[in-house]
Amino acid sequence: MPTFHYNQYMEYYKTYCSLHPYESVTNFCADGKPPSILAQCLVGLCATCICEHTEQHLKRGTPPCYENIKSTFSKYNDRVREQVGKIEQDKEWLVIGGLFRAQSVRRSKRSART
Question: pLDDT 10s digit of each residue in the chain, 114 long?
């Protein structure tokens, strides 16, 4: 059975804007609610892009909802770690339970033969 290994030391890597290569991407707009969703929402934004994106929201009459990428990464990375830990515990429980059931079946087959 393949074993899942989770890198507990995942790191946030700084990325640079494709439109403004001298600026790092720091935020994204989390406004993904129809009908206000813009095609550019949920995309990484640098400081210049944030200004442009805000203008697009203002033209449509919808408020932007910016979130910091590094904070979001940390929050969800912690959640993933928690879930991996729970999956590992469940896997151990299932393996131990499966071994116990296999031993019980072997015992019952032996006693049926005698």
Answer: 334 444 555 566 788 898 999 999 999 888 755 554 555 577 889 999 999 999 988 898 888 889 898 888 888 888 888 888 898 888 888 777 766 666 666 666 666 666
Nearest to 63 by CA among 27, 93, 32: 32
Nearest to 72 by CA among 17, 23, 24, 30: 30
> Tokens in use for 34?
């129809």
Task: Please give the backbone phi and psi of residue 18, each rounded to the nearest 5 degrees, phi first.
Answer: -75, -25
Alpha carbon separation from 29 to 20, 34, 43, 108, 114 (Å, rounded)? 17, 14, 7, 61, 71
The H-assigned helical ranges of 1-114 are 47-60, 69-113
Contacts of 81 (CB under 8 A, 6+ apart): 6, 8
Instruction: Write down the domain spans for the chain.
Output: 27-113
